[in-house]
Design brief:
- This protein is α/β, with parallel strands linked by helices.
- Helices cover 42% and strands 11% of the residues.
- Strands 3-2-4-8-10-14 form a 6-stranded mixed beta sheet, sandwiched between helices. It has a 3-stranded antiparallel beta sheet with strand order 5-6-7. It has a 3-stranded antiparallel beta sheet with strand order 9-11-12.
- Strand 11 and strand 12 form a beta hairpin.
């Protein structure tokens, strides 16, 4: 999808056309395997699994190799001379093994192997985005998340998870791998035992409730949220689509039962939409130390008024009370959110929506005084216990990158009480966000258009998924692209549509 060159580019590039894997020969794989350290080979093979046949074969072969290499320095020895990857590739019916293997090597950061195969690491990054958990091409989406979980968990957390599963399932104790360094082997064993499942190639039919429960109890929130969200998406994809419009035609008894899955939105009190519109920025005297990290002044966010107009028109049409506050200082941002949390509770409003239009960087957004506010603080204020049972929406249009480059008409927006909150980010962490200096941002404009089109037929999360897909498919004349992100702890489906009359 081509877009006007008046748009600013997000720093997330599209798949590189320069990357070619066709030169990899199956005869190369024997040398490739010999060049992998054992812990690298375990991780790569884990990511190569596609179906039960792969899982059974790879698990058996890696377990044998583990027994050969058992010892104190096991993680630092070269892999046993056994052609697991070669055999896997020969059994690939659709001949996509090259792309799948290169993606797995990139995720595991086997950069020396990729260089030996003749790849440019920048092209690899631009094609497979290995550090973005939600991005995948050929690797199974659940396996990528589980691998990243294994990579980030501490040794203590890993041992506790293994023990948790052994306490829960008696036959887990019979597994011969006794090292937490190779958590992927334990996961493959649990999949083979059908204790957990990755489902089909899209994750439909997956289940890993015990792992999710462990992550929640041990406050490993990042992966608890990702696996929980993925489970919800897979479950929705596996069920017949339902909507408020369809339910009107069903029997009264069934309608009432189905509505237990939805938040009840009152037509007379849909809720407030607080828009914090940061257009102009300044620096306060006497706070020079707070600005030492800024590379110059924050630029005026031309085009943001178009976003405000679209938000006001869209949400007002749904019955929301839209309040716009312009150019709030960093301290005023939290105070304004707290004010509307109180109003929402006192007036028995159905929900609360907060939209922040500003510059930003990783995990923060800027006040008009050029002082950043952490998104964590914003979530804390929004998720007041008084609103624990009400749906809350946080929409953030701001960069999540420290990258300060880029000029022209395409401008960049630069530098456990969280239940029932859905956060829609214009871009993933580490990247900039695109804003047309006249027409507004890709993200907000697409969001408002999709809400207007689908709000009576689909719930909010599914609409955000459509927004994600359309925005990710846009491309500016100079190759500008972006990748939105969704985080959700909603316990029910949220329709921006009155539900009290059914």
């Amino acid at each position: 999808m081509s877009v006007s060159k008046d748009l600013a580019h997000d720093a997330l590039p599209r798949a590189s056309a320069k990357l070619s894997v066709s030169s990899i020969s199956i005869d190369d794989l024997h040398l490739l395997e010999k060049d992998l350290l054992f812990h690298e080979k375990v991780s790569v093979c884990f990511l190569l699994c596609r179906e039960n046949r792969d899982i059974s074969f790879i698990q058996q072969e890696l377990n044998l190799e583990f027994r050969v290499h058992r010892g104190r320095a096991i993680g630092h020895q070269r892999a046993f001379d056994k052609s697991i990857i070669t055999t896997w590739a020969r059994n690939d019916a659709d001949s996509k093994w090259r792309e799948h293997l290169v993606e797995a090597l990139a995720i595991v950061k086997c950069n020396r192997v990729l260089k030996k195969l003749g790849f440019d690491l920048q092209d690899i990054q631009e094609t497979y985005h290995p550090l973005i958990d939600e991005f995948f091409v050929h690797v199974h989406p659940i396996l990528k998340i589980l691998f990243r979980m294994c990579e980030k968990m501490t040794s203590l957390e890993t041992r506790k998870l293994i023990q948790h599963m052994r306490n829960r399932y008696d036959n887990c104790g019979d597994f011969e791998v006794d090292s937490e360094k190779f958590m992927e082997l334990h996961l493959l064993n649990w999949i083979s035992m059908r204790i957990i499942s990755i489902g089909d190639e899209k994750g439909i039919g997956s289940y890993f409730d015990e792992i999710i429960a462990f992550l929640k109890v041990n406050e490993i929130d990042e992966f608890w949220e990702k696996l929980k969200r993925f489970t919800a998406i897979a479950s929705d994809a596996n069920l017949e689509e339902r909507s408020p419009g369809r339910m009107k035609k069903g029997s009264p008894g069934k309608e009432r039962k189905d509505l237990e899955d939805f938040f009840h939105m009152n037509s007379g009190n849909m809720g407030y939409v607080l828009v914090i519109n940061q257009k102009n920025f300044h620096k306060e005297s006497g706070r020079e130390i707070d600005y030492c990290f800024l590379n110059g002044d924050l630029e005026t966010r031309y085009g943001t008024d178009s976003d405000v107009k679209s938000i006001r028109e869209t949400f007002s049409a749904f019955g929301f009370n839209v309040i716009v506050k312009d150019d709030l200082r960093s301290d005023e941002i939290i105070c304004s959110i707290e004010e509307f949390v109180g109003k929402t509770e006192e007036e028995s409003q159905s929900s609360l929506v907060v939209v922040i239009l500003s510059h930003g960087f990783q995990g923060s957004v800027y006040g008009s005084n050029s002082i950043p506010v952490e998104v964590r603080e914003i979530k804390d204020a929004l998720c007041d216990e008084r609103l624990s049972d009400k749906p809350k929406i946080l929409i953030i249009q701001a960069c999540q990158s420290n990258d300060d480059s880029g000029k022209g008409k395409l401008a960049r927006d630069g530098p456990s009480r969280m239940g029932n909150l859905i956060t829609a980010w214009s871009t993933v962490e580490g990247y900039t966000s695109i804003r047309h200096t006249i027409e507004g941002t890709w993200f907000i404009q697409t969001l408002c258009a999709k809400l207007s089109e689908f709000h009576e037929k689909e719930h909010f999360y599914d609409i955000l998924t459509k927004v994600h897909a359309e925005v990710a498919d846009k491309e500016g004349d100079s190759g500008e692209t972006m990748q939105p992100k969704i985080d959700s702890t909603l316990k029910k489906k949220l329709y921006l549509y009155p539900m009290n009359n059914f």
